[in-house]
Every structure is written in C-alpha cells, then in structure tokens.
Specification:
By secondary structure, this protein is an alpha/beta fold. 18% of the residues lie in helices and 33% in strands. The protein starts with a strand and ends with a helix. It binds coenzyme A (COA).
Length: 203
C-alpha cells in the first residue's frame, strides 16, 4: 500500500514505497529503494540506489540534498521494557505489538550524505552538513559541520562562522531556480559571497 501526494514540489510518501527508480518533478530516487512510514522529500533532492527508510516515525528531507547509495534512515526503536523484543512473540502472547518508540528524523537543505551512512532515530541534520561514507550518526549534526565514523564525530566545519552566517542569510534554497542561476559564480565558490553581493541577492 502506498500513496504519493504532491504539493508545491514536495514528494510525500504515506505507507510503503518500494521503487525501481523514481523521477518525479525535480526529485530523484535511485533503483531498489524502500521507503516506509511518512516521508517527505523536498524539491531538488537526489537520492542514490538502495535508499532504505525504516521505522514508525516520520522522515523529512529538505531541498537540494545529495544522498548517496545504500543510505539507511531509521525512525523508531523497539519497545525495550517488555519481556520480548520480537513482534511475533508480542502478537502471539499479548495480542498486540508493543508501541515502538517513534522518533522523527529531520534533514535540512543541501545536506550531503555519503554512501552507506546510517542515521538513527531522532537525528536532526542542519543545513549544508556533510555525513561521511559509512557513518553511524547517533547525535544531531550542526549546520555546515562534517561528521564521519562510528559513532559519527565532527571532523571540521565547512566554512568559518562568518561565512556560515552569510549562507544562512542568503538561504539560496528558498530562491527560485532562475534567481539561483543568476549567481552561478557563488555556487562555484562560496568565497565569492561578500556583503555587497548579499544585499544584491536580497533586493
Ligand atoms: C566525509 C568526507 C567528505 C570528508 O572529506 P575530507 O574533509 O576531505 O576529510 P579528510 O579526508 O581530510 O579526513 C579527515 C579525517 O577524517 C577521517 N575520515 C574522513 N572520512 C571518513 C569516513 N567516511 N569515515 C571515517 N573517518 C573518515 C580521515 O581518516 C581523517 O582522519 P585523521 O585526521 O585521523 O587522519 C569524505 O571522507 C567522505 O566520506 N565522503 C563521502 C564519499 C561518498 O560517499 N561519495 C558518494 C556519495 S554521493
């Protein structure tokens, strides 16, 4: 059972989506992906093959994210208080499944997630952050930080605090594609982002 809803370029998956390859407006999802629970994917985000979303919570992916292959996002934990963690045992003995501990995962705009990374329930990833290949992300990630490893730790920041403030102010992900394309040189290198140009952007 799956349903795809569209609203202003959002892709909303309610239920289960097992897809070969999905290309819908400006959103791409790679071959062999398996998306469960309520997931929203905003415009311009591209996701590699074998993307897996599991769990009972929601997942929200912002605009223009670049998500590698075999990335796994989990949005709930099993209930750990009962005697058994197994749903088949719970169904048989209790006649119900013990409620999962739902924890939504929220991913900002222009986030890059390397191949094979796993994000655990409840993670928030800030705009412009990078998650290294194979990382297991156990804590939320600040905007524009690069994290890697298991458990993922901050390696460095992508930019100085002053450049980060300028990019957040610019919020290019909220612009139209035509507006973005006028400033191609800044997309080539964020060093081009000076105060004068920022004012120009906001005019
Ligand atoms: C996270 C990443 C962007 C960092 O690149 P970088 O800033 O150039 O980092 P460096 O190579 O200088 O490494 C810095 C440190 O982090 C470690 N590190 C880098 N990437 C790592 C990773 N994925 N897992 C664990 N440690 C990592 C390095 O070993 C190094 O540690 P050291 O200082 O102890 O030697 C890159 O390593 C990565 O994982 N890219 C994802 C590639 C990918 O999946 N591409 C396809 C998807 S579209």
């Amino acid at each position: 059972m799956f349903q795809i809803n569209s609203m202003f370029g959002f892709l909303i998956v309610n239920g289960f989506l097992r897809c070969g390859r999905l290309s819908w407006r400006s959103i791409r999802i790679g071959w062999g992906s398996w998306i469960k629970s309520t997931t929203t994917i905003d415009r311009g985000s591209a996701i590699g093959s074998h993307f897996t979303v599991r769990g009972a919570g929601s997942l929200n992916i912002g605009r223009y994210c670049a998500i590698g292959e075999s990335v796994r996002i989990i949005t709930s934990n099993h209930d750990m208080k009962g005697l058994s963690l197994n749903y088949l045992v719970q169904d048989r003995i209790l006649g119900k499944r013990l409620t999962s501990d739902k924890k939504d995962v929220n991913i900002g705009h222009d986030v890059w997630i390397g191949d094979g990374a796993t994000l655990l329930p409840g993670i928030e990833v800030g705009n412009g952050a990078i998650i290294g290949a194979g990382a297991v992300v156990t804590h939320s990630v600040e905007p524009f930080k690069i994290v890697a490893g298991n458990p993922a730790r901050v390696i460095r920041s992508r930019y100085s605090e002053s450049v980060i403030k300028k990019i957040e102010y610019l919020a290019w992900w909220d612009m139209t594609e035509e507006e973005q394309e006028k400033y191609a040189h800044v997309f080539e290198s964020a060093d081009q982002l000076n105060d004068g140009l920022l004012e120009h952007f906001k005019e």
